[in-house]
Design brief:
single chain, mainly alpha
Length: 71
């Protein structure tokens, strides 16, 4: 997966997780609240992975540009 895909999926999972937590609180469902927390954490991890991929890509591109400039 690309950085953008990871970030989009992460944002989606965070939002769904928060919604599940809210529904769990409203209905008194500990299970739904727990699922929501786990999904939100998963989303944060996906976003972090996307950020890391983007940073790596940016660093490689910067290095390549600097190398080409010096040639």
């Amino acid at each position: 997966m690309g950085a953008t895909t990871d970030k989009i999926k992460g944002t989606s999972n965070e939002a769904i997780g928060k919604a599940k937590q809210g529904l769990g609180e409203a209905t008194g469902s500990d299970r739904l609240q727990g699922e929501g927390v786990m999904q939100e954490v998963k989303g944060k991890g996906q976003k972090a992975m996307g950020d890391a991929k983007q940073a790596t890509k940016d660093a490689v591109n910067s290095t390549a540009a600097a190398t080409n400039k010096n040639l």
